[in-house]
Amino acid sequence: MSHSITRQSVQPVPGGPASGLPPSSASRGDAGGKPSRRPSPTARRQRRAALLFLAPACAMVAVYVIWPILSTLSLSFYSWDGMSERTFVGLANYVELFQAPTFYTALKNNLIWLVLFLLAPPAGLAVALYLNQRVAGIRFVKSLFFAPFVLSGVVVGLVFSWFYDPTFGLLAMMLGHGVPVLGDAHYATFGIVFAALWPQTAYCMILYLTGLTSLNAEQLEAARMEGARGWSMLWHVVLPQLRPTTFMAIVVTVIGALRSFDLISVMTGGGPFESSTVLAYYMYDQAIKYYRLGYSASIAVVLFAIMLVYIVWHLRRMLRAEH
């Protein structure tokens, strides 16, 4: 009896050093039974290098994008003239903003800008398709269409102000009589939008010309062999490949429509009787002329929210279409 107990007591434990079995997970120091996966020194160096390369860009975005957005949001809850101490007013700036008639006039004009400005992407696509051909002199023609994009907004505003002038303008010569486009509350906004479409169409044209150079030649050749021509080729083969370019053109056009400022400042100054003002110009007017920086910040926050909602909605719609 004692011998059997002695033999049992000296039997090797499974997984122990005396047995031939491999050590258990507990003996390896991993309670979960999974081997520890530590990154190699090369992977750590690559990760550190990537972070160092990204750090300057992240710092600039934080300083010049994130911090101004947060500062503007904070300032919108204060009453401040830029010189004296700030006074916390809570939501008073937003309450006043939503009760101001000028705000709704500016919002309506921004909607007009948005609807009419969306003519720029299809117009730019049409011009790009026309210029995307190999004929003699096409580079000179491209430079003519490209010229409006390199002009500043001030120059474009002055050129179209002279064009609309009812006394000596080209429009008056074409119609045979003067029409006060910029002096009439019913026409001023449409006249400014028409002037802004000139450089915006050129910008969309450049985007589409770049996109047309990256089309898949094999897909185009296969479509030709299947008999695709003209509109069917454009709709079923070309436009699906230009979807990222179209997204970029629409987003840039929407942002340009919502932040329109320079042409309004040069051509009408928001008039006549604030009929052509938009949210961006209304924000500038309240901050620079009337020293109401808190109220101006509330306008900026509303404008930013409108841009953000539209861009996120359009981005989600595009991603769903791709999947």
UniProtKB/TrEMBL annotation:
- Provide ranges: composition bias, Polar residues: 1-11
Question: Its membrane topology, per UniProt?
Answer: Multi-pass membrane protein
Instruction: Tell me, in one coarse class, where this protein mainly resides.
Output: membrane
Under PANTHER family, the record lists: ABC TRANSPORTER PERMEASE PROTEIN, INNER MEMBRANE ABC TRANSPORTER PERMEASE PROTEIN YCJO
Region annotation Disordered: where it falls in the sequence = 1-43
Q: Which residues cross the membrane?
A: 49-70, 111-131, 143-164, 187-212, 233-258, 293-313
Q: In its UniProt entry, what is this protein called?
A: Sugar ABC transporter permease
Family, per entry: Belongs to the binding-protein-dependent transport system permease family.
Q: Where in the cell is it found?
A: Cell membrane
* Organism of provenance: Paraburkholderia kururiensis
